[in-house]
């Protein structure tokens, strides 16, 4: 695993590579962000944005989502993976917001995870992006990059990856680092075809060095 100085170098390099890293889910308010992140599970942000372009025109408030039959909402998000279950969770979430929170999205991770369909990753994204709460949401990109580079161990669970990153990265950098790790994984250190041959972190990446040896051999 990398030491503190090596991790610092990685973070600074990612900052240079992706200085504008940000949440790529289109939204206008915390409520839309919750819906978008819920829809993004096992789905690309690009597809979610395509669906929410019309969805957010049709549904503005939690009440709007409850004013239609479940089947209609399912049709509206049909191109999204797991659309039936996600539609059910959206309506359950909206009902809870109305009944327990006056229609307002909670601001803390602890309260957000109580919402139907909202796991820790979703809660961290919403708390960080919508409310400025320091957080590191571990999605597939963050987990992959963290393990490939040696920020954490391959056998670590998602929760252990999050805890390790929170321990090794200054709290004031959690949120921006989360976005940079995502951009690094989405556009450079890809799941199937990582760009090891041009990676500025190759000298620190044992996984990348192994890949390069296999290619040359």
UniProtKB/TrEMBL annotation:
PROSITE patterns: ENDONUCLEASE_III_2. It catalyses: 2'-deoxyribonucleotide-(2'-deoxyribose 5'-phosphate)-2'-deoxyribonucleotide-DNA = a 3'-end 2'-deoxyribonucleotide-(2,3-dehydro-2,3-deoxyribose 5'-phosphate)-DNA + a 5'-end 5'-phospho-2'-deoxyribonucleoside-DNA + H(+). Binds 1 [4Fe-4S] cluster. CDD domains: ENDO3c. SUPFAM superfamilies: DNA-glycosylase. It comes from Bacillus badius. Gene3D superfamilies: Helix-hairpin-Helix base-excision DNA repair enzymes (C-terminal), Hypothetical protein, domain 2. It comes from the Bacteria. DNA repair enzyme that has both DNA N-glycosylase activity and AP-lyase activity. The DNA N-glycosylase activity releases various damaged pyrimidines from DNA by cleaving the N-glycosidic bond, leaving an AP (apurinic/apyrimidinic) site. The AP-lyase activity cleaves the phosphodiester bond 3' to the AP site by a beta-elimination, leaving a 3'-terminal unsaturated sugar and a product with a terminal 5'-phosphate. GO terms for molecular function: endonuclease activity. Belongs to the Nth/MutY family. Its cofactor is [4Fe-4S] cluster. [4Fe-4S] cluster binds at residues 189, 196, 199, 205. Residues 39-187 form the HhH-GPD domain. Its EC number is 4.2.99.18. NCBIfam families: nth (TIGR01083). This is Endonuclease III.
């Amino acid at each position: 695993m990398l030491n503190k100085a090596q991790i610092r170098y990685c973070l600074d390099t990612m900052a240079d590579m992706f200085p504008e890293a940000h949440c790529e889910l289109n939204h206008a308010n915390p409520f839309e962000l919750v819906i978008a992140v819920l829809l993004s599970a096992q789905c690309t942000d690009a597809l979610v944005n395509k669906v929410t372009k019309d969805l957010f025109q049709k549904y503005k408030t939690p009440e709007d989502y409850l004013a239609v039959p479940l089947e209609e909402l399912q049709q509206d998000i049909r191109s999204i993976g797991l659309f039936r279950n996600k539609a059910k969770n959206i309506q359950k979430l909206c009902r809870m917001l109305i009944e327990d929170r006056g229609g307002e999205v909670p601001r803390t991770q602890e309260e957000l995870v109580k919402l139907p369909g909202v796991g820790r990753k979703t809660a961290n994204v919403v708390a960080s992006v919508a409310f400025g709460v320091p957080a590191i949401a571990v999605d597939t990109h963050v987990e992959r990059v963290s393990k490939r580079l040696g920020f954490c161990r391959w056998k670590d669970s998602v929760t252990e990856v999050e805890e390790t990153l929170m321990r090794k990265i200054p709290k004031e950098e959690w949120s921006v680092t989360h976005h940079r790790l995502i951009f690094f994984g989405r556009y450079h250190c890809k799941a199937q075809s990582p760009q090891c041959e041009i990676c500025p972190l190759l000298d620190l990446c044992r996984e990348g060095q192994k890949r390069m040896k296999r290619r040359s051999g």
